[in-house]
Specification:
Number of domains: 1
Structural class: mainly alpha
Number of strands: 0
Number of helices: 5
Order of helices and strands: HHHHH
Distance between the termini: 62 Å
Strand content: under 5%
Radius of gyration: 15 Å
Largest sheet: none
Shape: globular
């Protein structure tokens, strides 16, 4: 069997490489170094980080209770980002 040269992440089960710190910061914006390290440790791809972040920040996902629950690495990233997003929301001034 010929190798494709792509690494498959054991945790994410994906042939796409794990997201870099720079990619995670581009997706989620401000994030603490500790939280970033925890997200990177999951082996999540940029697409998985984007999916978790979208679930946290999109009204469409919040309202769509009929959606299947998050699983695997996306669920792990979601749980890691949840407190970070809450902190950012608390710092924003109320809109008028």
């Amino acid at each position: 069997m010929a190798s494709t040269g792509k690494k498959i992440s054991a945790k994410s089960g994906s042939a796409t490489p794990p997201a870099s710190g720079e990619e995670v910061r581009k997706i989620v914006g401000r994030i603490s170094d500790d939280r970033l390290a925890a997200v990177l440790a999951t082996g999540a791809t940029a697409a998985q980080v984007t999916e978790a972040f979208t679930w946290l920040t999109s009204d469409d996902y919040i309202a769509a209770r009929h959606q299947p629950p998050l699983t695997g690495v996306v669920s792990e990233v979601y749980e890691l980002l949840k407190p970070e997003i809450a902190e950012v929301d608390e710092e924003r001034p109320p809109s008028s």
